[in-house]
Design brief:
The protein is of the alpha/beta class. Helices cover about 40% and strands about 15% of the residues. It contains eleven helices and 13 strands. Strands 2-8-7-6-5-3-4 form a seven-stranded mixed beta sheet, sandwiched between helices. Helix 4 links the parallel strand 3 and strand 4.
Length: about 350
């Protein structure tokens, strides 16, 4: 199994500007910070084992029934919960994609088939993936928009994938953790199919959209009550802390303006970073969420770290090699700073080659 490598390692790289974590650049909603401080004393009590108030808040936010929701200690716990509950013998994974799908399947002893995303096709999921969905496959993971590439798969193709999965009795685990950053997220969300497709499990999280990675809070949506019950059975009791539940309820209360501001800001600053990188000669792919995926010098990670910028080296993703990177959309000032540094770096590299 590959070594666990993720973004956000500020504990071993102190004093850096962290572009490696793709969370909301606006930071957590003020209401979340306020409630955490106000309710800190609740840590003297066990959390609600049923996540009652949290499920109610998610139900109202998503427009689904409370019994169609499962809450977890981040989205990652739910990926492990579904693989542990179902014990798939064989699974299909697009690659590159989020590393914890592979790890969850590895822990469950699952044989993995990879659908390799092609650089020549901009790392997009194509209709040829339908040919890889076979009756021998028990489970499939799909991240939309994909992490780390930021490429989106159209609703039409996801629907075809869902149909093919149903034909072959394959459980589709659809990761929509970054959908909220898209300009028109409703054009890609698939929750309306939750009841007509019992083979669909949608996973979301507060981690990225509400910038709450330290609280560890995610949730799943499915019309399949048996599946959710099986997942609940393999999760630890009290897996969602009392402060995570309080923070989640606060985040979803009156969040429309926060989310609108987020999408407006991310759209503008993402365009700036993409433009700057392309002007400097970097090859940029996808990048339709709150992060930018590009190809650069093999030693760019080390150079950036030395300059005080922590970026995500994507060389450990299946299907990628040294030289692929992901940087998050951060504040306007920080985005301008890293763009200016990249310009100076380019000038330095050009001078050294002369």
């Amino acid at each position: 199994m590959r070594e666990q490598i993720h973004g956000g390692d500020i504990y071993r790289h102190t004093g850096v500007i962290d572009f490696s974590v793709n969370s909301n650049p606006l930071g957590p909603p003020k209401a979340v910070l306020d409630i955490i401080q106000k309710q800190a004393g609740l840590i003297a009590h066990y959390p609600d084992i049923r996540c009652g108030r949290l499920k109610k808040a998610i139900s109202e936010f998503e427009g689904v029934a409370e019994e169609e929701i499962i809450c977890g200690n981040g989205a990652a716990e739910l990926f492990f919960a579904v693989t542990t509950a179902k014990r798939p013998r064989r699974a299909l994974l697009p690659a590159p994609s989020f590393a914890e799908y592979e790890r969850a399947l590895y822990v469950s002893g699952t044989e993995i088939d990879y659908y390799m995303l092609d650089e020549a096709k901009q790392f997009e999921v194509g209709e040829d993936i339908l040919e890889r969905i076979l009756p021998e496959i028990d489970m499939m993971f799909l991240c939309n928009p994909n992490n780390p590439t930021g490429q989106v798969t159209s609703r039409e193709l996801v629907k075809k994938i869902l149909d093919r999965c149903r034909e072959c009795d394959v459980l589709l685990v659809l990761d929509e953790c970054f959908t909220g950053f898209l300009d028109e997220p409703e054009e890609y969300e698939m929750k309306e199919y939750r009841q007509s497709y019992p083979n669909l499990l949608i996973i979301k999280a507060f981690t990225k959209l509400f910038c709450m990675p330290g609280l560890r809070l995610g949730y799943g949506i499915s019309g399949n009550q048996e599946l959710l019950a099986q997942m609940e059975d393999v999760c630890q009791p009290w897996n969602v802390s009392v402060l995570a539940q309080e923070g989640g309820v606060a985040a979803l209360a009156d969040c429309r303006e926060y989310l609108e501001n987020t999408r407006e800001f991310v759209t503008r600053e993402r365009a700036f970073l993409v433009r700057e990188l392309r002007n400097l000669g970097y090859r940029v792919y996808g990048s339709l969420a709150n992060y930018v995926f590009f190809e650069g010098e093999d030693d760019l990670y080390e150079r950036a770290l030395k300059a005080g910028y922590l970026i995500r080296d994507c060389g450990n993703y299946p299907g990628l090699s040294k030289g692929y990177y992901r940087i998050a959309v951060r504040t306007q000032e920080e985005n301008e700073r890293i763009a200016e540094w990249l310009k100076r770096l380019g000038e330095e590299i050009t001078w050294l080659r002369q």
